[in-house]
Specification:
By secondary structure, the protein is α+β, with helices and mostly antiparallel strands. It is 17% helix and 36% strand. Strands 1-2-3-4-5-6-7-8-9-10-11-12 form a 12-stranded antiparallel barrel. It starts with 22 loop residues before the first strand and ends with a helix.
Length: 212
């Protein structure tokens, strides 16, 4: 297991979600944008539920007891896939914790910039390959300051993995709810992009069929 390259605690959501040692979590993707996050002993840590509305894509993160910790929200029509994270069940800007955006409108690899509330400077970045489940989350501009990273398989072979599961190593003193929130946002972005592409293909097929 990789060791932390950060010296300062990362507790964006709360210090109660950090540990002084590195540990692995398992993310299982369910249908409809839902997720279940467990530890290596199959104990449920978090659940991510999709709760889209007419004008917004949304994800809510709950603890094992069903209490909502975080709400993630994106406008249906927005440039750079901008998302906002709110504490608890709030949608108020006064409870906004961080925002994210894609640095480029068209991207061939996963890249996400994260800004803490009321800041214009990028604090964290997510980079890598979502399709291969090989993304890293790091602070600032230095990829050497990694705080979490994804793996497609359990290298220790202690847990049976399938295509819907992947692992994430959380580095010491890093807020795992924050890490899961970023993963949920990237997953939602990819789902939205896929749905949009499928709708465009369907629309083009209808146009071609109508003119044939």
């Amino acid at each position: 297991m990789a060791q932390s390259t950060t010296s300062n605690p990362i507790s964006v959501i709360g210090s109660e979600f950090t540990a002084p040692y590195p540990f692995d979590i398992i993310v299982e993707r369910k249908s409809g944008g839902n997720m279940v996050i467990t530890d290596m002993n199959n104990n449920t840590l978090l659940k991510v539920k999709a709760c889209n509305t007419t004008f917004h894509y949304e994800r809510a993160i709950f603890n094992a007891d069903g209490r909502i910790i975080l709400r993630l929200r994106d406008k249906i029509i927005s440039q750079h896939n901008r998302w906002k994270a709110y504490r608890g069940d709030s949608r108020s800007n006064k409870n906004m914790i961080f925002t994210t955006k894609q640095p480029n409108m068209i991207q061939f690899k996963t890249s996400l910039h994260v800004f803490l509330a009321n800041k214009d400077v990028c604090d964290f970045k997510v980079k890598g390959s979502w399709s291969k489940r090989k993304c890293k989350i790091y602070t600032g501009d230095s990829a050497s300051s990694t705080i979490a990273q994804m793996y497609k398989k359990d290298k220790s072979k202690k847990v049976k993995m399938d295509k819907k599961k992947f692992m994430v190593t959380i580095y010491p003193n890093v807020d795992y709810v924050f890490v899961v929130a970023l993963i949920a946002i990237v997953d939602a972005m990819k789902t939205v992009d896929k749905d949009y592409a499928e709708k465009m293909v369907e629309a083009n097929a209808q146009v071609i069929g109508a003119t044939a």
